[in-house]
Task: structure prediction
Amino acid sequence: MCVGGHLVAQPVEFTRIQRLTNNEVALTLTAPVGRAYRLESAASLTEWGGLFTFPTNVTSSLQYTDAAAPFLATRYYRAVQLSGTNLVSGDHLATVHGDVIMQPRNHATLVLQWNGKMLYFDPVPTATYTGLPKADLILVTHTHSDHFNTTTIDAVRGPACAIIAPPAVYNGLSATQKAIATVLTNNASVDLLGVTIHAVPAYGASHPLGAGNGYVLDLGGKRIYVSGDTGDQPEIRALADIDVAFVSMNQPYTMTVGAATNCVRSLRPRVVYPYHYRDQSGATTNAATFKQWLGTDLGIEVRLRNWY
Ligand SMILES: [Zn+2]
Result:
């Protein structure tokens, strides 16, 4: 394996490229403040793709750890300065209609930007939304307060926003929100904004069957799974060709780390994000333990992000 740093647009500069003991690669870039930059990667010097868009920087040092590097024979990096409006920072997933940008916000809240649209999952007051474009689509997994808040939905929804909700969530929406909502029962699907959305049953010890949805999004030839609050269930293991999975793991509400490990090893996504992983004790060690237990033999990239 070789790792190359490639300087393209002055004055962005790779000042450090370090192979870590787990074979991931830690990158440090130095760049003028007040601008946004996109880190790109390639397996050859002719086929670059987006890896990560940094937020507009307030310090000159930018850090990124590439968790895919251990699984690749060759990896090159470069960085480009971005211009334009409505820039959203986060990880990239390439599709035939441009990249999905995936941005963790907090606990169970995440946002995706794709094809000019903003998708918000489980927006609640504990997350902040400053600087983000308003939502074109809001997906709510279930009624618990760490996932569902009608005031926050009104705060983040854009003028032509749609809402996807299981029946119990729909029943808790305001009349205005109901008018723009689509009810999805477990295993139902709908097409919105060029995305096919499938409701996957999300249930377990603390969540009765039928009350909650996970979601699979088919968009631009890629598949993203967001688990919601669930145990390790056969409906999850049966999902095929998942590119990116967001999987919950905390007690007593979702999976144990062991259950999440078994579930994800069966699901075999290409990339997995532990989310919703803080335990009642306040500990946030589940994510790192999950990464350790999952191992590297299946080639699944585990991305640890700051959700709290
Ligand atoms: Zn929850």
Q: What stands out?
A: The chain has a mean pLDDT of 95. The CA atoms of residues 1 and 265 lie 26 Å apart.
